[in-house]
Every structure is written in C-alpha cells, then in structure tokens.
Write a structure and sequence with these properties.
heterodimer; A: mainly alpha; Fumarate Reductase Cytochrome B subunit; two-stranded antiparallel sheet; 2 strands; about 5% strand; B: mainly alpha; 6 helices
C-alpha cells in the first residue's frame, strides 16, 4: 500500500493532464494557469518555511562534530569537521551541500553469526544521491534554454558538456541516463533493504515516482515521441514575459511533463523535499563549535532571580559572626 | 526571527534565482522564428508541389531524427534512396537534398536554431550552401 498509493497518485496526475488537454482542451489551464500558481506556491511556501524555522529558538549550541575541537595550541584542530569560526562553518556547509560529506560516512550494520554486530562501508547511497542531485541540477540549469532569448554562454557550455559524447541526433544528454538510473536505484534500495522499507512512507515514494515520471516524460519527448520544440519555447517565453500564448499543435506529452513539474514545485515546500532550504537552517550543521569561547544564551531563558552569596552574606553577616562563621567581608 | 540578517540574505538569493528568467527577459522583444521557404528552388515548383520531404508538422518535430536515419542508412548500409509517405523518392543527402531546396540556411535552419540555441555540429564537415551576406 505504501508504494501503491503514491504510484497511482502519479498515474492519476498523468491521466488528468492527458484528459484535460486531449478531451477538454484545457491547454490554458495546464500550460499557463497551473504553472504560474505552482511557481507562486513554491516561492511563497519556501519563504514561509524558512521564516518559520528562523523564528524557532536554538536553545543549545548543538553542532554535530566528528573531529578534534579547538583546544590547546599544540593539539591539532580538525577545522572542517569541528569548525570554530564562521569561515570554516561555510567550508563545512559547502562540502555538505555540494558533496554530501556526512552521507559519505554512511555505514551499514549487520548482525552476523555469533551473534556479532558488524559494520561496513556503504557508499552506494552517497554515490546515487550525488549522481541524482547533480544531474537534476544540471537538467534544471539546461532548461533555462527555454526561458531565455540569447541563451547565456554558461548555459550553452553546460549543455555542450552534457552532450559531449555526440551520440545520435538530437544529441544524447548524459544526465538523462544518469538521473533515470539514480532514481531507479534509490527506489529499488527502498524496496529491497528491509529496514529502509519498514520506515518508508508514501511521502518517500511519491517524490521518487513523480521525479521518475518527469524525467521519463522529458526523455520520451526528446528522443522518441518528439514535440514541436519551437512552439514549446513560444509557450515558455510567453510565460516568462507575462504575455502567455498557447501555440497550436504541441503534443499532449508536453502538457503532462509541465503538469508534473508544476505538481513537484507546488508540493515542494510542504514535503520532505524542502530539505533544499532546510539543510542551510540545520543548527547541527550551521553552528560553529565555539562553546568554550562564547557563551550560548538560550533565547527563551526565563529571567531567573538569582540570590548571590554576597547578598546572602549581607543579609546574615551579623548572625554569622555571632555564630563564629567565617565571612568574606568584615 | 533569529539571525534575521543571514536568513534574509539567503532568502533574497533564493528569490532572485527562482525568478531569474523573468528578470533576464525583461524588456526584450520576443519574436518567434519565421523560417523562410521562398528560395528559388522551391519557387520553381508548382504551387501544389511546394512540400517538404514529409509533412510540415512531421518536419518541424522530427527533421533531426530523419537526418540521423538518412546518415545511418547512407554511411552504414549504402542505401541512398528515401521513399516518403506519399511514395515520392528522394536522394538521402543533407547537402544535395535538404540544402538544395533550403539554400537559405541563415534564414531557414539558423532562424529556428538560434532561437532554440542549438548549434548542429554537422557543418563542421558538411558544406553549407553559399549565401550572400545580408
């Protein structure tokens, strides 16, 4: 059930777009209204989530570290794993965001005969995750071709590198194969590792199916059932210049592709996908481990009235003296 | 909000990236490409014969695929004759067939390709028709 519900949810979305375009002629709804609404939801939703996180206090200094903390001068600090300044926090964050450094440390645990607990290196998740995210980013950047006239040079360069193998016409993009393989791996991994399968929810499968469907529809459109790309660009340019047009004769698979992407964008801020923004807001990553240098004050600390020893002595000095107790001030 | 300054910078960057296509195209004239099919070779044909190798809709979407099939068929199996949906025969050749009719590469092929920012690498080897600079 946990996989079937999200699977059929995606199937229903595809059927919805096909029916809307082929039977009800709702090209304007699927080509203009929904994409605009989805983008607005995406932007406002992400801002809402980030502001909400920003308003939550961080009571303790809680970076998770795994290296030598800054200590005595002759003990070598592990600056990346245990940063004590903003500069090194930025380095650590960059490695985390760009290379998934903490996932690289992923290990697998197995109960062997004995019974003995065994740990082993497990880099496949890291590798597939990295391959997936990077190809997604490259594909996203490549699509800027459809949203600009006089496509800027960096975009053309990325595209040139991606189609560097010059296989077939239209040229084959490497990231197309990589993303399909990586998403498939991530799905199979969820299905075959019992512990992972046990904790997986429909909300874990839905984005996988959705992204798989988006990538597949794009691949089909580029290499197999081709659509009139010049008209597609007329539509997308109409969107970005706020003068929407619906050119005639674009294949309905394009509307499926666009609708699924709109769903992804609108779903993004309210699902686990928002980890794109969340990774920057994680106190365990973005704080410097400087708790020996700077006092971290819990922002929600209730102002406690403190009665110091000095005040105590002032109150009872005469009585203390009379009892022969030592006092600090005469 | 805690750390409001840093979060705000992040949000501004996010907003800028997410809406970049809108800003990038602001104030640009957006003209759709209009490939010209009025070359002398095409005008010579009778009106009802002014047709491409296949239907116009097919050509718009699939011409690269067709060229790829032609290329494979000529280079790999030395089959040089293409029969279209109407049974008409064509010599499978980029330079001698496509470019004989579409001798206005700059006003035709490039018109669309520049719009889409594609640069077919075919012309590294194949010779483009001679055109007057205009």
């Amino acid at each position: 059930m946990k996989t079937l519900i999200p699977f059929f949810a995606v199937v229903i979305l595809i059927v919805l777009a096909l029916a809307g375009v082929n039977m009800a002629n709702m090209q304007f709804l699927f080509g203009v209204a929904i994409p605009y609404a989805a983008l607005a939801t995406f932007i406002l939703g992400v801002i809402y989530r980030v502001v909400k996180w920003g308003r939550s206090p961080v009571p303790f200094c809680i970076p998770t570290t795994c290296g030598q903390q800054k200590s005595l001068p002759w003990i070598k600090q592990d600056k990346i794993e245990n940063p004590s300044s903003t500069g090194w926090v930025i380095v650590r964050m960059a490695l985390e965001v760009l290379l998934f450094r903490s996932l690289f440390r992923n290990i697998k645990t197995e109960l062997r005969d004995g019974p003995k607990l065994a740990y082993g290196s497990d880099k496949w998740l890291w590798l597939a995750g990295l391959a997936f995210h990077w190809s997604f980013l490259i594909i996203l950047v490549r699509h800027f071709r459809f949203f600009s006239l006089g496509v800027p040079f960096p975009i053309r360069m990325i595209e040139g590198l991606d189609s560097f193998l010059q296989i077939g016409v239209p040229l084959f993009y490497m990231t197309d194969a990589v993303i399909l393989a990586a998403v498939t791996y991530l799905f199979i991994r969820r299905m075959t590792i019992p512990t992972v399968k046990y904790i997986s929810l429909p909300a874990d499968y839905f984005p996988l199916f959705l992204i798989l469907a988006i990538a597949a529809s794009g691949v089909i459109m580029r290499y197999f059932a081709k659509v009139d790309i010049v008209s597609v660009k007329q539509l997308t340019m109409g969107l970005v210049s706020f003068s929407p047009v619906i050119p005639k004769g674009i294949g309905s698979i394009f509307y499926v592709h666009l609708f699924l992407i709109s769903i992804l964008f609108a779903y993004f801020p309210f699902s686990k996908l928002v980890h794109m923004a969340g990774v920057f807001m994680s106190p365990t990553r973005n704080m410097a481990n400087d708790s020996r240098m700077v006092r971290h004050i819990n922002p929600w600390n209730y102002p406690v009235h403190v009665h110091t020893y000095e005040e105590y002595e002032n109150d009872f000095r005469a009585k203390m003296k009379a009892a022969g107790l030592p006092v600090e001030k005469e | 909000m805690y750390n409001a300054g840093k979060i705000l910078i992040g949000l501004i960057i996010f907003f800028g990236l997410a809406t970049f296509p809108f800003f990038y195209n602001m104030g640009k004239a957006i003209a759709k490409p209009e490939p010209k099919v009025d070359t002398p070779e095409i005008m010579k044909l009778a009106k009802q014969d002014r047709k491409c190798v296949e239907s116009k809709e097919f050509m718009r979407a699939e011409h690269m695929q067709l060229l790829n099939e032609w290329r494979d068929s000529v280079v790999r199996s030395n089959t040089r004759v293409y029969v279209n949906a109407e049974g008409k025969k064509f010599d499978m050749s980029l330079q001698n067939t496509c470019m004989r009719c579409h001798s206005n590469k700059k006003k035709f092929c490039d018109e669309c390709h520049n719009y889409m920012a594609v640069k077919p690498y075919c012309w590294d080897c194949h010779i483009a028709p001679k055109e007057k600079e205009s």
